Automatic annotation (TrEMBL), chains A, B:
Organism of origin: Candida oxycetoniae
Keywords carried by this UniProt record: Aminotransferase, Pyridoxal phosphate, Transferase
Subunit (UniProt): Homodimer.
Domain Aminotransferase class I/classII large: 129-501
Name of the molecule in the record: Glutamate pyruvate transaminase
Length: 530, 530
């Protein structure tokens, strides 16, 4: 901007000022050769900063992805001479569809281009569908420039639209209110606000599923609170176990840990499980009885396959309140959604929302204050949420293309999920649950110690776990980057990995199968291999 | 998305599933009429949540703006019959140019529209300048879809570009490195990361200017650390006083407070002051001697008027390191910039960056981890930073228009600043410093207790301070919303207010002058009015 600014203050005035400054700086620096005398202090070490920021762990972008990044750099710098047995990294560590081959939806991006440059609306040569132009105009009329800060909760127009979407989605039993909606940067900011306000002190506990998305443990650690893991039941399609959760609340109370919230990820990350109506009802009961906030991470609500149906916590809560308001009227539910997943896959646009149900105004005000300190979430991301929840309708000019694109993405994901799952089913000493939803499979590496002496002894002699070793070798041999199960939590003595099923093509899956065969051959005891 | 999803699972299958779900839900709910029995727990109160989230204060969107919002709603709902002496709120409480009349720069928005919908590049009818198309292509080729998560520090391409901008801006003495750049959502996220990692425990202190931008005190409170205010010298154009700062470090050390960072806002918010080379040198000396991190909030670096020149902390540090590496090599500087201010005013796009200089790798890794937990900053905002720091050059097709638009905005802001300042100069019992930079004036309400008995007695009988009363009455009489000085901090017994000079036109300033006259007449003791 130096070029830009030099015009403003006038060239003559400026050069005078500049020479004065440079002069004074030189004199000053020269002077301080003689006058400045102090003992310079050393730099900060990690022992002098916040210990909880040092302690927090986030595996999705943790050690394996960092090695992968290094390999990617190596390939980039030496495209023909990198010495690796593959030519690119397959990023299966993160649900980031547009980093791979997923194309953005035309509907989203046409409206967004008009919001960025509204003068395109007056361009007669531009053949955008009428409903695209109409929606862009509607947003611009109601929200104004996307370059202005919005209300800290998000522009009222978007919040109203989201409230209507939720009410319709959930059958209208418990209508949503725009004042309870907060637009957020993906779902991550919502998690951060909720865990921050609910961390009363170091005795505050949060029930989180094991395995879980590590944003939760990381944020709980940052807030010096206690993560209290409840196991998802691998033998029962990774479903929740309400009696175990009740037991944990009781046990923790005895230990002085006050459970503040129950986190549920549905559809599950990393498990891909989808909860039933009964599961949801039982979890709400627990929260109603114990005054625990229910955090429903429902960002994968569009990613549901295989005959399952997504049921929102809000819908079930609405039914329960209608039947028994006396029992359920105090339930405090925060439910999260995002434009990053679903068939949108607009991760980089950072759109998302949180609905708060049943919170006291005084508590909601505190969340509002946190949102205010951050001013507002990105307004283009807010618009993206509007486009996601309020897509073209039958009869609209964009509808057919929108339908074709979304169906294409959905069917493709379903097929990729199936293909990868079938591959895991065939792999020796691997078990996997059929994917029901989300973007992940969380197969179990069923390497019994009695059969894999070499593997367990290698683990024993290093700081690595069985799943770390598997993921590192997978990466080194195939370029496939996924995340060891220990990054998400797993029952002691069990080992898993999380992989997305997003990468295109079948070749990478075949390479994985080949690698797996070699891995088993390398580490499984000869006597059992015969 | 219900419409969208219903196609995917097949209508027949789906309606079967749906009826099964509805059936089971009804049965289940009905059953729980009889079997569910528990005592419902009450809702959370603010006494059961994090006390520091309750305690944190953020005046920029605090009580006065909240009253203003209520009045705005009233006007909207009753446009002809609202009973107020004005028809709209003048938002002078926040630097939000595009909420007022500032138009986005064509250069930014044309490139952004192409990034959102790259197919426009193939539209022969679209007459965008060649350099706009070229830049969009360059970004798309290097970064890919803006709908994908980027590297958590920001896309390497943008970081490289920012590093080159800084190196050039600062004369190249201490070249910037792309690995030290973090793209952030405005500057707020950068502040949040820095204060979070530097808050080692409750004995960690942060030197912040008084008056300050309240993001700092709010974030320090959230991190349970101690804000240690150093006064800016109102009698000397709000400059810094190094000996006072040194004294504070000493005093606080004695009290067991370990100063972790010195925050400097230059150009100043809310004061509008611009630091000299000598000021900056002296502040760097303090940090070098005491091993204190220097946080330079330089988001207003383009907003510098009246013969002053912006000098970055990085530039001065580079000069000092060149002369005396032994003394300055350990200085840890974090400098922040944003697309929200300057002539960009793209607040809603949430673009910003932070450069870290001199930090140990191990500490930078922790900041990287925090960034990873949030995945990445919005990628369109990252692109906006690139467009800001790398604008059209002379000879580029966009250059003339870019120059015209940026000059227009800059000159306009300068003129508005001057007009408002002149008005304050004329107001009875108000003093103001000539605006040097930023977007604000911070006039002093010089209402002496001996002359304003009625005013001080009103304050005494309420929970309001003098500046609160003034701002509330200003809002109620004119619709002008600004922020009382107590929201930023001020010397005890002094009262100020912060107003932006962004609102267009002169009429609002005239209304303010009129109001001020009435206010003085109402509260100033008659004997002194004669």
């Amino acid at each position: 901007m130096i070029i830009a600014r030099s015009r403003f203050t006038g060239a003559a005035g400026r050069s005078m000022i500049r020479s004065r400054n440079i002069m004074s700086s030189v004199q000053y620096v020269t002077r301080c050769h003689y006058t400045t005398s102090f003992e310079p202090a050393p730099k900060l070490t990690i022992h002098e900063i916040s210990p909880q920021t040092v302690e927090a762990e986030y595996a999705v972008r943790g050690k394996i992805p960092i090695i992968a990044e290094g390999l990617q750099d190596l390939i980039k710098k030496n495209p023909t001479d990198h010495g690796l047995p593959f030519n690119k990294i397959i990023n299966a560590n993160i649900g980031n569809p547009q980093q791979l081959d997923q194309k953005p939806l035309t509907w989203y991006r046409q409206v967004m281009s008009l919001l960025e440059y509204p003068k395109l609306l007056d361009e007669p040569a531009l053949k955008f569908p009428q409903d695209v132009k109409k929606r862009a105009k509607l947003i611009l009329d109601n929200v104004g420039s996307i370059g202005a800060y919005s209300h800290s909760q998000g522009a009222p127009f978007f919040r109203q639209s989201i409230a209507e979407f939720i009410t319709k989605r959930d059958g209208g039993l418990l209508p949503a209110n725009a004042n309870n909606i907060f637009l957020t940067a993906g779902a991550s900011t919502a998690v951060s606000y909720l865990l921050e306000i609910l961390s009363q002190d170091e005795h505050s506990g949060f029930l989180i599923p094991i395995p879980q998305y590590p944003l939760y443990t990381a944020t709980i650690t940052l807030n010096k609170a206690k993560p209290v893991g409840y196991y998802l039941d691998e033998s029962n399609h990774w479903s929740t176990n309400p009696s175990e959760i009740r037991q944990l609340i009781k046990e923790n109370k005895k230990k002085g840990i006050n459970i503040k919230a129950l986190v549920v990820i549905n559809p599950g990350n990393p498990t891909g499980a989808v909860l039933s109506h009964e599961d949801i009802h039982k979890l709400i009961d627990i929260c109603a009885e114990h005054g625990i906030v229910l955090i429903a991470d429902e960002v994968y609500q569009e990613n549901v396959f295989h005959g399952k149906d997504f049921i929102s916590f809000k819908r079930v809560l609405g039914e329960l309140i209608q039947k028994r308001p006396d029992l359920y009227k105090n339930v405090q539910l925060a439910s999260l959604h995002s434009t990053s997943k679903g068939v949108s896959g607009e991760c980089g646009q950072r759109g998302g929302y949180m609905e708060l149900v049943g919170f006291r105004e005084e508590v909601k005000d505190i969340i509002f204050k946190l949102a205010s300190i951050n001013l507002c979430s990105v307004v283009s991301g807010q618009a993206m949420v509007e486009l996601m929840i309020n897509p073209p309708k039958k009869g609209d000019e964009s509808y057919e293309l929108y339908k074709k694109e979304t169906s294409g993405i959905f069917d493709d994901l379903k097929e990729r999920a199936k293909y990868l799952y079938e591959a895991f089913k065939e792999m020796e000493d691997v078990t996997a649950d059929p994917p029901q939803g989300a973007m992940y499979i969380f197969p179990k590496l069923d390497f019994k110690p009695a059969q894999y002496h070499k593997l367990y002894s290698r683990a024993k002699n290093s700081s690595l776990l069985i799943d770390d070793i598997y993921c590192i070798e997978l990466l080194e041999h195939t370029g496939i980057c996924c995340v060891p199960g220990n990054g998400f939590g797993q029952k002691p003595g069990t080992y898993h990995l999380r992989t997305t099923f997003l990468p295109p093509g079948k070749e990478w899956v075949e390479r994985w199968t080949e690698f797996h065969h070699l891995f088993v051959n390398k580490y499984k005891d000869g006597t059992f291999c015969a």
